[in-house]
Amino acid sequence: MAGMPSEPAATPTDATPIDARPPSGSAEDGSVKAVLHHYLRTARRDLRWKLEGLTERQLRTPMTPTGSNLLGIFKHVSSVEVEYFTGCFGRPSGIEMPWFEDDSEPNADMYATAEESVEWVFALADRCAAASDAAIDGLDLAAVGTVPWWRNGTVTLGRLLVHMVAEYQRHLGHVDILRELLDGAAGLAPGNSNLPGEEDGAPEDWWDGYTERLRQIAADAPDTLPNTPTT
Predict the structure, then answer these.
(1) Which runs of E-coded beta strand occur in the chain?
(2) Is the pLDDT of residue 189 over 50?
(3) 31-68 tens-digit pLDDT
(4) For the chain, what is the radius of gyration of the CA atoms?
(5) How many whole angstroms separate alpha carbon 61 and alpha carbon 106?
(6) Secondary structure tally for the chain: helices H, strands E
(7) How far apart are CA 125 and CA 13, in angstroms?
(8) Hey, what domains does the chain have and what are their CATH numbers?
């Protein structure tokens, strides 16, 4: 792709392992900012983990009518994050992202072109995370920035941290489903499936019966719109 660097060098986002437990939020361990940053970093880790062990074809395969694919979601959320935490506070990252230019095609940030290799996208995500972390570390929660593409774009770092944690978690839900459809892999986080297992009386073959039971409940349900209250 014209204007793209040949291969961005991977930069570790943080040499410090992410603790299993978030900070308490007290002044002694970084207050609320440390808590929000913890959840952001954890979400990054979980999204990357969901892409491990798949072939390039699997990573690129669109799994929905709107083209949802794992590599594209990874590219999208990484590049959106760095724009929020750097450019919106007048601290541009210097990372070229032509998919956000005015003349780019719709949804250009939601897939990787043939020229953008898997290794390139992973390295891009590392650079974006490192630039975001540097900006977050250097700003107070009350620091004010501007999001040009929002209707009311005056924001604080605190609001953008909440926004990006929510953004990651929404896309992690998408990725959970796409990964399970691709190869059956499921789970919440590395080392924590958060799913019933053999110790709960749910060995691997238990899931077939469980799913079939749900299909039967659905098949017996009326094919009409439910009368649900609206808000």
Answers:
(1) 144-146, 154-156
(2) yes
(3) 899 999 999 999 999 999 999 999 999 999 999 999 99
(4) 20
(5) 18
(6) 6, 2
(7) 9
(8) 27-196 (1.20.120.450)
